[in-house]
Amino acid sequence: MNRIRKGDQIVVVTGKDKGRQGTVLNVADDRVLVETINMAKKHAKANPMKGVEGGIVEKEMPLHISNVMLFNPITNKGDRVGFKVLEDGRKVRYFKSNGEVVDV
Questions:
Q1: CB atoms within 10 A of CB 10
Q2: N or C terminus of the chain with fewer C-beta within 10 Å?
C-alpha cells in the first residue's frame, strides 16, 4: 500500500516547483506524475498518419516520491502519512500531525 496514490492532493517539498500543489495523475514505482508540475519542453516529431502535429510540446515529467508530501486540508500544509488498522479490520492512511484518517 503506497503512501501517495492517484488522485491525492500533494505539495512539492523540494526543487524548482517547491511549495506548489497539484493532483497526482499516476504513480509508478518510486515516481509520481503531478498535474501541471515539473513541466518540460519536449520536441515532438509530426506524424500525419496519427494526426499529431510537430513542434515543441510542454508536458509533465515525473517527480521522485520523496520530493512530495500529502496535502493536509486541516493544517493547509504537507504532512507525513502513516498506516493503522481500524477496529473493523481496514488498513487506512492517517496524517501523523493530527491523527486524522485520510481514507474514508
A1: 23
A2: C
Residue 35 lies in a domain: yes
Decide: 76 and 91 in contact? Cβ < 8 Å.
Answer: no
pLDDT-based confidence at residue 67 (cuts at 50, 70, 90): very high
Split into its structural domains, the chain has a count of 1
Q: Is 68 exposed, middle or buried (0-12, 13-18, 19+ CB in 10 A)?
A: buried
Q: What is the CATH number of the domain that holds 15?
A: 2.30.30.30
**Residue 79: closest CA among 64, 50, 51, 100:** 100
Q: What is the pTM of this model?
A: 0.86
Q: Is residue 83 part of a domain?
A: no
